[in-house]
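Handout, section 4.2: multi-component inputs.
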Amino acid sequence: MTSEDRLKAALGLGAAAPAQVDHAFVSRVAEQIEARRFKLRLAVLALWAGVATLLGWVLAPVVVQIGRDAASSLQPIAAGLLLAGVVWWLRKASVGGALRLARRVVRPGLH
Amino acid sequence: MVAAGASQMSDQALAQAARAGSSRAFSELVSRHQAAVRSFLRRVCADPADADDLAQEAFVTAWIKITSLRPEASVRSWLCGLAWRKAMTARRGRARSAARDRQWLETRPEFETPAARDQIAVRKALATLPDDQRAVVALCLAADWSHAEAAEALALPLGTVKSHAMRGRAKLLEAMGERPHDL
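Output:
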């Protein structure tokens, strides 16, 4: 045995050499990558949640104020829409229909 | 395409698919190169469990940094380079336990054969080599890598790799009781 062979043999890993095909190792790596991806996704979501909370906190007074202002200016519009709805409904209704409706309300069992 | 024939694809094609986000392609790369990376780390780190942990970390880092892999580069060299840098980062904390393991090995009766004595002597000598030299020995002498491949993986000049290989071989032979100049 030459010195080169001896060196080669001594540098060999023997029983400690890893298997050429090791599905367990590959799946452990895949698990770690998935865990890392999940943490990253979680971190991004947490960041967005933080940004949304901050925005909400900053904009809340403005939104409330806009709501109040709009409520007073929208009141006539809402009243107008309600009136329009009532008129439209009344136009569709007929005297016969009104009588039938009234009869149904007074004596529900009679058809 | 990746799902159908990942095992027939070249490393470069798999790396490209992994860059595009294919976990399957990356798993195939891990499967192909895990033995090389783990063998390298086992020679460098002494403790196989530590070496495997580092190999896992290196592969996770590879997944994160896959976009930095040049299309023409060797995937095996790139992975071993990442593993080597991981090993260097973890080296300090683990040096003490590696020395303890070597002492324990020496006291085991089953290691009284000449081949085992050579192995222990080589391990001890490997541990005393400078980091770069140890890595070159692990790649070029133990795993039969070319000097150019080792230079690429370790980010060292080719001439440095050649001289590390020569000096490393001389020291290991000396540790085994051989005369290096006989070569």
